[in-house]
């Protein structure tokens, strides 16, 4: 018994002296590292082998091995009846996916980027999201819409929009956005197993990044709960919420802020709809300051919803106005320097955190 | 709209295969039907390019009329079938007329689109289906629901917005769904139902090939109008259905008007059936005011789909006697045109056929009329007496998995809060 209590004390000591500065990558010592791409590919593979009703549909998912190689190897393994290369007909094949889901099949529809989902948005919202309600529970739609979302590098205005806010405003949909490999595996598996329509927003620039994963994550029955955010980094001074690529930026900003003595808590939202308001509010009640970070357009964005939620539920706890960091309110420019200015950077997050902590002159609200 | 359709060669490839099991396809009238068209081929001029492997265009109306006038001994239907068709069409008509009455009395509200005049299409096609076959429709879906077997009480309650409706009052006139009868809606956007129907057909094929349910030969029917045939989704699905040989029949209810836009003003080539062969499937035009002709064409198209030969595009020339919806003043249509089609009322035509061919007597048909009136009145009474949905029903059925409403402020899932769907919890 003495041994156990000594272990416990030792464990607590280890937690205290664990360096807060290091990034996620250097935390675990002997953990395996996989890229987000491998995480998504292995999730699809395992879910397809577990349930014969799961099938993939999209442009270039089969013979091309996936436009971003996410579906690599799946055509050879499962055959052309389960990995379908479609013609360029977003509205058509999305509707076909919804019709198949009406009958209990589990389609995973890939959009080459979510910008193209605008051609199919009628089916995502009107037939997928609303059907369970309109049919009073008779017909559910266990479909997953996945693909890269948000800005990539130098792809211009029509290929760079973030759709999190659009889809998250619609009842009947679940909207998920993973950051690292663990998120990618867990959330995609949860999405495929879920009986409702799920919009799964990935990020093209994260596909090639590798993150450490534990053995539990690599197990084929692993999944994460939908609707729960994760506190990536604990802190006491300011709460920074982010999703997808911005989580990485927020973690880097937190390291920089640590040097200035500001202890930031970073929340990885994981689930945009339903939003984990309880975690966010609990965090704000602890730190009393909030910064929301997102890549999409600022007006009516995810940050606006989080800000409202906090003002409604934790107004008395706020010591500073909520800071909203979002992409610039312009269509994405092409020139590299302009593009850098149109997307939030680590310096923007640091500056906002300092403002929230009253360490700098308060800035007038920028457009 | 052009009415002259020249005889076209039938490419024998899709139709000459020995069919397998379905007794419907082997019914005597069907094979005789093909006999007559083959005879016609010898006489028609061969201007058409037969090297196209796809299906061809054919106008059925003339051939069937020819056949029925020639042969007096072999009728197209039996007495039971005739009475069933008559009852179904009268049911549709009486129900829609009652809907109009109820709307003007304020019991029904919103958008109500009535099907008067088009009953032959619904009855002709849907009465040939099994329970597991699916039907996807548009906002003009009351009669499709009734033909498919949804009880009149459920449909009327749904229209009144009562909780005993087929969708518990949450869908309404334009969104009729029934899992039990495989009626997949009920879509307000035109063209929206076509990809859904294609997906349902895809599932049938997937079940057979991947899930190895060997006897799954379910067919899907997609009903839509002439205006939809200019919409992108229609063409996308014609392509994919033909590409993947899906068991689906695309039924165009061409009533010549899309609200106030006449078909000829909106379409570069008004002959819709011609769009089928462009995608590699047969395109057929049929007189949609004659239920027997529709039934003949339907038998072949559904049989094709069941045998795995792929999709068919059937254009039914029909007409709606009332306006687009009950809110439509219907000023743009020429009264002469309306009279022309009113004279071709499908119910009157079938009645005449049944009596002339001694399949039924006046008294029997009157008895059916009376029975239907009673059923419809009973449906109205039932709907009237049904309760409106409870407040707690507002938040129900949004998700199949109720945890989709997320985690509440107390850290537990919202749906675990016992007060969640009583309208007291914050959304």
What labels describe this entry?
heterodimer; A: about 375 residues; alpha/beta; Rossmann fold; 2 domains; seven-stranded mixed β-sheet; five-stranded mixed β-sheet; 13 helices; about 15% strand; globular; disordered N terminus; B: about 425 residues; six-stranded parallel β-sheet; two-stranded antiparallel sheet; 14 helices; THDP-binding (chain A); transit peptide (chain A)
Describe this structure in words.
The complex is a heterodimer of chains A (367) and B (427). Chain A is 39% helix and 16% strand. With 367 residues, chain A is an alpha/beta fold. The relative contact order of chain A is 0.11. In chain B, helix 8 links the parallel strand 5 (220-225) and strand 6. Chain B is globular, with a radius of gyration of 23 Å. With 427 residues, chain B is an alpha/beta fold. Chain B has a single domain, classed as Thiamin diphosphate (ThDP)-binding fold, Pyr/PP domains (Rossmann fold, 3-Layer(aba) Sandwich). Classes of the chains: A alpha/beta (367), B alpha/beta (427). At the A-B interface, helix 4, helix 5 and helix 10 of A face strand 3, helix 7 and helix 8 of B. Chain A: Its EC number is 1.2.4.1. Chain A: GO terms for molecular function: metal ion binding; pyruvate dehydrogenase (acetyl-transferring) activity.
Topology:
The complex is a heterodimer of chains A (367) and B (427).
Chain A: H1 2-17, E1 32-35, H2 36-50, E2 54-58, H3 74-78, E3 83-85, H4 90-102, E4 106-110, H5 121-134, E5 144-148, H6 164-168, E6 174-176, H7 181-193, E7 198-202, E8 210-213, H8 215-218, E9 230-233, E10 238-242, H9 245-259, E11 264-268, E12 271-273, H10 277-287, E13 290-293, H11 302-314, E14 323-325, H12 336-342, H13 346-356
Parallel strand pairs in A: 2-3, 2-4, 4-5, 5-7, 6-7, 10-11, 10-13, 13-14
Antiparallel strand pairs in A: 1-8, 6-12, 9-11
Helix pairs in contact in A: 2-7, 4-5, 9-13, 10-11
Chain B: H1 28-43, E1 57-59, H2 60-70, H3 79-104, H4 119-126, E2 134-136, H5 142-148, H6 152-160, E3 177-178, E4 183-184, H7 193-209, E5 220-225, H8 232-244, E6 248-254, E7 257-258, E8 261-262, H9 263-266, H10 275-278, E9 283-287, H11 291-307, E10 312-317, H12 335-342, H13 346-356, H14 362-385
Parallel strand pairs in B: 1-9, 2-5, 5-6, 6-10, 9-10
Antiparallel strand pairs in B: 3-4, 7-8
Helix pairs in contact in B: 3-4, 3-5, 3-13, 3-14, 4-5, 4-11, 6-14, 7-8
């Amino acid at each position: 018994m003495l041994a156990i209590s000594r272990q416990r004390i030792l464990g607590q000591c280890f937690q205290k002296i664990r360096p807060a500065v290091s990034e996620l990558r250097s935390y675990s010592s002997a953990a395996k590292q996989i890229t987000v791409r491998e995480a998504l590919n292995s999730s699809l593979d395992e879910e397809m082998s577990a349930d014969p009703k799961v099938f993939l549909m999209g442009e270039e998912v089969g013979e091309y091995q996936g436009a971003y190689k996410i579906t690599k190897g799946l055509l050879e393994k499962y055959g052309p009846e389960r990995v379908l290369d479609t013609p360029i007909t977003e509205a058509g094949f999305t509707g076909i996916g919804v019709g198949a889901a009406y009958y209990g099949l589990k389609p995973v529809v890939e959009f080459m980027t979510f910008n193209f989902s605008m051609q199919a948005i009628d089916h995502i919202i009107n037939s997928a999201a609303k059907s369970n309600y309109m049919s009073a529970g008779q017909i559910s739609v266990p479909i997953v819409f996945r693909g890269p979302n948000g800005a990539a590098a130098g792809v211009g205005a029509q290929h760079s929009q973030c759709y999190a806010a659009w889809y998250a405003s619609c009842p009947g949909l679940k909207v998920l956005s993973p950051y690292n490999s663990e998120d990618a595996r867990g959330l995609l598996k949860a999405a495929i197993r879920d009986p409702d329509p799920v919009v799964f927003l990935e990020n093209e620039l994260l596909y090639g990044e590798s993150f450490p994963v534990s053995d539990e994550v690599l197990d084929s029955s692993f999944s994460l709960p939908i609707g729960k955010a994760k506190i990536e980094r604990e802190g006491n001074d300011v709460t920074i919420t982010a999703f997808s690529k911005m989580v990485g930026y927020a973690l880097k900003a937190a390291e920089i802020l640590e040097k200035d003595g500001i202890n930031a808590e970073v929340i990885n939202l994981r689930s945009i709809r339903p939003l984990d308001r309880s975690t966010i509010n609990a965090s704000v009640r602890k730190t009393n300051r909030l910064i929301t970070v997102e890549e999409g357009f600022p007006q009516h964005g995810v940050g606006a919803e989080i800000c409202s939620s906090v003002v409604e539920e934790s107004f008395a706890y706020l010591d500073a106005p909520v800071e909203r960091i979002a992409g610039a309110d312009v269509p994405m420019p092409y020139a590299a320097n302009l593009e850098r200015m149109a997307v939030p950077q680590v310096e923007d997050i640091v500056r906002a955190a300092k403002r929230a902590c009253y360490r700098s002159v308060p800035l007038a609200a920028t457009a | 709209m052009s009415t002259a359709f020249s005889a076209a060669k039938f490419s024998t490839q899709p139709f000459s295969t020995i069919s397998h099991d379905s007794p419907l396809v082997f019914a005597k009238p069907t094979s005789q039907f093909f006999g007559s068209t083959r005879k016609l081929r010898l006489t028609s001029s061969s201007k058409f390019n037969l090297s196209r492997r796809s299906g061809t265009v054919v106008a059925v109306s003339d051939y069937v009329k020819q056949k029925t006038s020639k042969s007096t001994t072999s009728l197209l239907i039996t007495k039971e079938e005739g009475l069933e068709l008559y009852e179904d069409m009268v049911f549709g008509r009486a129900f829609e007329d009652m809907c109009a009455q109820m709307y003007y009395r304020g019991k029904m509200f919103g958008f109500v689109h009535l099907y008067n005049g088009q009953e032959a299409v619904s009855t002709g096609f849907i009465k040939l289906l099994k329970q597991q076959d699916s039907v996807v429709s548009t906002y003009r879906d009351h009669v499709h629901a009734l033909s498919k077997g949804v009880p009149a009480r459920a449909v009327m309650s749904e229209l009144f917005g009562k909780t005993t409706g087929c969708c518990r009052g949450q869908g309404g006139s334009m969104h009729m769904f029934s899992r039990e009868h495989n009626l997949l809606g009920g879509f307000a956007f035109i063209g929206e139902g076509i990809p859904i129907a294609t997906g349902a057909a895809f599932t049938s094929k997937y079940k057979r090939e991947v899930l190895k349910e060997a006897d799954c030969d379910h067919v899907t029917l997609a009903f839509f109008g002439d205006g939809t045939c200019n919409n992108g989704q229609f063409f996308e699905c014609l392509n994919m259905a033909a590409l993947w040989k899906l068991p689906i029949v695309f039924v165009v209810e061409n009533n010549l008007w899309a609200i106030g836009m006449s078909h000829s003003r909106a379409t570069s080539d008004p002959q819709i059936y011609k769009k089928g062969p462009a995608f590699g499937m047969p395109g057929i035009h049929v007189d949609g005011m004659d239920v027997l002709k529709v039934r003949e064409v339907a038998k072949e198209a559904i049989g094709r789909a069941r045998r795995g030969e792929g999709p068919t595009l059937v254009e039914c020339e029909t007409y709606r006697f009332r306006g687009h919806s009950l809110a439509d003043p219907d000023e743009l249509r020429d009264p002469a045109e309306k009279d022309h089609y009113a004279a071709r009322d499908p119910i009157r035509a079938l009645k005449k056929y049944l009596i002339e061919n001694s399949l039924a007597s006046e008294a029997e048909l009157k008895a059916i009329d009376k029975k239907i009136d009673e059923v419809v009145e009973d449906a109205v009474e039932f709907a009237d007496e049904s309760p409106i949905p409870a407040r707690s029903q507002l938040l129900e059925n949004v998700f199949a998995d109720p945890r989709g409403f997320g985690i509440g402020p107390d850290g537990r899932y919202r749906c675990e809060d016992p007060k969640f769907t009583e309208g007291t919890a914050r959304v």
